[in-house]
C-alpha cells in the first residue's frame, strides 16, 4: 500500500534516525525566517545549511551537509559548490527506483520469518511496516521514495537494484534485517547547470520561452530591479504557498529553468524540483548577475 504523502510533518525528517539507508543529501530549504515547507520524508536527498540564509547573508559559498542517515555516524565533510553542477549518474545505471521497506533488529529472526510468511500469504509490506518497522519511514508505510545508485548503503542498494518489480526481498545491513520492495522504476532525472552564454542563445528563440518553464525564485523587490522575460516569479520566502502545488502549477515533464541572483537559491530549488519528479531541471549558473555581466549588459546589476 502506498502511503506516500507529498508533505508529511517535518518531524519525520529528523536527522536522528531517518532514513537509515540514505547516503545522499537534499536541501530542506531551512531558511531563517522563511516559511518552511513540509517536505516529504522520502525526498531523494537531505541537506542542511551550516549557517542560516538570511537577507543579510543570502549566499553562502560553502554548505555543510549533515547526513540524515545514522549509518555513517559522522557528518559529511563540507561540500564546496562549484560553478558547474551536474547530477547525471556516474554509477552506470540510469534507473531510479521507488522503494519501500521494513527494518527489523538483527536478532528478530523469528519475526522476520513470520513476516515473510505473512507477505507470501498476501499481506501488504506497507501495512506490516507501519506495525513492525524500526525505521521512522514506518509512518509512510516504509516508503523511501525514488532513489538512484550511490544514495544507499551498498548492501541495500545491491538488493534493491537487483530485485524484480513488486517482489519482496530481504537483505542485511549494519542496521538489521530489511524486507524491501521495488514498486516502480524510471529513467533517472537530469539536473545540471546552464551557463549564461548558452541560456542567452536559447532565449533568442521565441518558441523556447513558450515551451520551457522558467522560474525566478528571487524576492519581488529584487525582480523589480532586474528581470528577464518569460520567468514566473516564485519567491523562495513564499515557498510555503507555492511548494505544495508545484506539480499543478508546472508540468514535471517539461524542461524547467531556475534562476536567482547568484545561482545558490536556484540550485536548492532545482534540487528540490528534481525530488518532486521534474525530469529535466536546469540551474542558471551565476544567476541573473552572471547573465548581466557576461552576456547582456542591458540587464541592471544590484
UniProtKB/TrEMBL annotation:
Question: Start and end of every Rhodanese domain?
Answer: 208-300
The alphabetical list of record keywords is: Isomerase, Rotamase
* Domain of life from the UniProt record: Eukaryota
Question: Carries keyword Transmembrane?
Answer: no
Identify the InterPro entries for this entry: PPIase_dom_sf, PPIase_PpiC, PpiC/parvulin_rotamase, Rhodanese-like_dom, Rhodanese-like_dom_sf
| Domain PpiC per the UniProt entry, residue ranges | 94-184
> Isomerase as a keyword?
yes
Cited Pfam families:
Rhodanese, Rotamase_3
Q: What is this protein called?
A: Peptidylprolyl isomerase
Organism in which the protein naturally occurs = Hibiscus sabdariffa
Amino acid at each position: 500500500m502506498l502511503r506516500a504523502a507529498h508533505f508529511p510533518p517535518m518531524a519525520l525528517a529528523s536527522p536522528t534516525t531517518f532514513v537509515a539507508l540514505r547516503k545522499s543529501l537534499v536541501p530542506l530549504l531551512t531558511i531563517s525566517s522563511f516559511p518552511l515547507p513540509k517536505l516529504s520524508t522520502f525526498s531523494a536527498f537531505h541537506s542542511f545549511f551550516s549557517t542560516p540564509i538570511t537577507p543579510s547573508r543570502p549566499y553562502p559559498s560553502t554548505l555543510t551537509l549533515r547526513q540524515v542517515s545514522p549509518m555513517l555516524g559522522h557528518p559529511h565533510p563540507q561540500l564546496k559548490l562549484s560553478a558547474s553542477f551536474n547530477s547525471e549518474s556516474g554509477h552506470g545505471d540510469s534507473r531510479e527506483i521507488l522503494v519501500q521497506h521494513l527494518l527489523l533488529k538483527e536478532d528478530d529472526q523469528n519475526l522476520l520469518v513470520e513476516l515473510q510468511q505473512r507477505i507470501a500469504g498476501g499481506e501488504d509490506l506497507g501495512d506490516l511496516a507501519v506495525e513492525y518497522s524500526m525505521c521512522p519511514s514506518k509512518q509512510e508505510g516504509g516508503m523511501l521514495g525514488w532513489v538512484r545508485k550511490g544514495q544507499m548503503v551498498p548492501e541495500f542498494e545491491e538488493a534493491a537494484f537487483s530485485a524484480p518489480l513488486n517482489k519482496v526481498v530481504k537483505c542485511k545491513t549494519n542496521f538489521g534485517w530489511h524486507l524491501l520492495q521495488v514498486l516502480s522504476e524510471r529513467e533517472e532525472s537530469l539536473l545540471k547547470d546552464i551557463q549564461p552564454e548558452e541560456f542567452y542563445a536559447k532565449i533568442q528563440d521565441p518558441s523556447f520561452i513558450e515551451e520551457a518553464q522558467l522560474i525566478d525564485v528571487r524576492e519581488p523587490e529584487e525582480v523589480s530591479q532586474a528581470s528577464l522575460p518569460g520567468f514566473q516569479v516564485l519567491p523562495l520566502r513564499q515557498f510555503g504557498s507555492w511548494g505544495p502545488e508545484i506539480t499543478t502549477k508546472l508540468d514535471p515533464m517539461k524542461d524547467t529553468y531556475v534562476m536567482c541572483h547568484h545561482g545558490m537559491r536556484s540550485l536548492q530549488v532545482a534540487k528540490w524540483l528534481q525530488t518532486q519528479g521534474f525530469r529535466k531541471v536546469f540551474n542558471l549558473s551565476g544567476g541573473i548577475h552572471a547573465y548581466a555581466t557576461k552576456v547582456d549588459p542591458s540587464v541592471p546589476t544590484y
